[in-house]
Write a structure and sequence with these properties.
Strand content: under 5%
Largest sheet: none
Distance between the termini: 19 Å
Shape: elongated
Number of strands: 0
Length: about 160
């Protein structure tokens, strides 16, 4: 079962360890602000590489949103044209706008879901630091749901 660990060191538990930690602490702001340039550059490089990996997903999401917006615009125009033909322009404006927003409200989450990065097995990643209720109850995440007891799966 995977475990999450913090990026900070464990708290010292003996007075000698506390003294050693205090001795290595910076004495001034200048000392505390000194940063290794290689660390900063590697962090920026990691961000750039991550953005490059997400770029295709962003493009796919934007294309899907553009398609949904185009369909919504076309449907709105067709409702307005139909209503104008029957001398009901107000109905066409209201109904066309309503249908346009329904299509957009369905299309936006669809585009977002398709643009969301996926793991190699095709499932979307869970947000960092969040565990399921079953894991919170001490049930390993690799246990199939059919073998869990209902009260354990939803216990707090």
């Amino acid at each position: 079962m995977p475990t999450a660990t913090a990026q900070t060191a464990a708290a010292p538990d003996t007075p000698a360890a506390v003294d050693a930690l205090a001795a290595s602490a910076p004495q001034s702001v200048d000392q505390a602000m000194r940063v290794d340039p290689a660390f900063v550059l590697s962090k920026i490089e990691t961000w750039v590489v991550g953005f490059q990996r997400l770029l295709l997903n962003i493009v796919v999401a934007l294309v899907l949103f553009a398609i949904a917006a185009g369909i919504a615009w076309g449907v709105e125009r067709s409702f307005r044209a139909w209503a104008n033909k029957h001398e009901r322009s107000n109905l066409g404006a209201v109904l066309g706008s309503f249908v346009k927003w329904v299509i957009l409200l369905v299309g936006i989450p669809r585009a977002q879901r398709e643009g969301w990065p996926r793991r190699p097995d095709g499932t979307p990643p869970r947000p960092a630091g969040r565990i399921s209720r079953a894991e919170d109850a001490g049930i390993p995440s690799d246990t199939p749901p059919s073998t869990r007891r209902a009260e354990d799966a939803f216990a707090r």
